[in-house]
Design goal:
Blueprint (H helix, E strand, L loop, with lengths): L12 E5 L2 E5 L4 E2 L5 E2 L14 H47 L10
Antiparallel strand pairs: 1-2, 3-4
Protein name: Oidioi.mRNA.OKI2018_I69.chr1.g1539.t1.cds
InterPro entries: EGF
Keywords: Disulfide bond, EGF-like domain, Membrane, Transmembrane, Transmembrane helix
Length: about 110
């Protein structure tokens, strides 16, 4: 629909959404090029494109979701490496404790 912000009216922004370029309108405007005023009779809000506030909420949700996933991955990697160190330490300790040294036998 739009090729640049100049194509969108009333401070609308030209954005790529769902495989095509479209005008993202401010709160009071709608239409393919943000040409419809919300206070005009016969106004129909274009619900296909999220508003700037809705897009900000979506972006925040994605950010926190990714941050949580990264935290979980880091925690799992930490647990795996600490488990590996524990197993190695336990094997060394078990071998060390099971070693009794040379047996001394005395004959009477």
């Amino acid at each position: 629909m739009c090729a640049s912000n100049d194509d969108c009216m009333n401070n609308g922004k030209c954005v790529f959404f769902s495989d095509r370029w479209m005008c993202r309108c401010t709160f009071d405007f709608s239409g393919d090029f943000c040409q419809l005023n919300a206070y005009d009779p016969g106004f129909t809000k274009n619900e296909e494109i999220p508003t700037a506030a809705q897009q900000d909420k979506i972006n925040a949700y994605i950010f926190y979701l990714l941050a949580g996933l990264i935290a979980i991955i880091i925690l799992l990697l930490y647990k795996i490496t600490s488990l590996s160190r524990t197993v190695t330490t336990r094997n060394f300790t078990i071998r060390q404790l099971s070693y009794r040294g040379p047996s001394s036998t005395s004959t009477v």
